[in-house]
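Batch job 17 of 40 flagged for manual review because the log was empty.
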Amino acid sequence: MSKNRIAQIFLASFAACLIFFTYFLESYKKKDSKIEKQIIEKETKNLDASVSSLIENITYTGSNNNEVFFEINSAVSEIFDDKPNLSYMKEVNAVIRLIDGRVIYIKADRAVYNKLTNDTFFIGNIVATEKNNKITCDNLDFLLTENLIKIYNNIHINSEEGLLLADKVNIDMLEKNANIFMYDNKSRVKVKIQN
């Protein structure tokens, strides 16, 4: 083959590749971006249809008849049309004042607050403190309807007296006592007492 023939084949191949990449891939990218836009619009419509309110920096306060007072603050709260009495909160801080004067501070990633019952379900990276006691766990239910605080999943309780590891702790706010459980009957609550 002559040099001219090789140059012609090379130029024709280059032109074919250039046309292919310019038109075919460009239309493929446009089609891909159209599909992506449709998906985003569909998700946005679904979100807008289900969320009736999105509130920033919200505070709920209240009490029960047994002189337990609370204040729950959230950076963001969502209220859905199908569950208008529930507030789904993110970045949550709470203060609970018990009848005997003790104050419990709770910090959590998320919480669900029931506006009718004042029950609150804290979820994720929970840190609860009361005087020199510190509790970390995954779930904490503040149930005013039952005068009960339920703490469960990955519980670590640190206090001046020592350390306690358990699966579940129920605290009766009126009787001022706690029941400590393990999910598996063969397992035991772990307690380390400091001298």
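Reviewer: the log was empty due to a logging misconfiguration, but the result itself is present. Strands lie at 51-63, 69-80, 83-97, 103-114, 120-130, 133-143, 148-159, 162-172, 177-181, 190-193. Unflagging and moving on to job 18.
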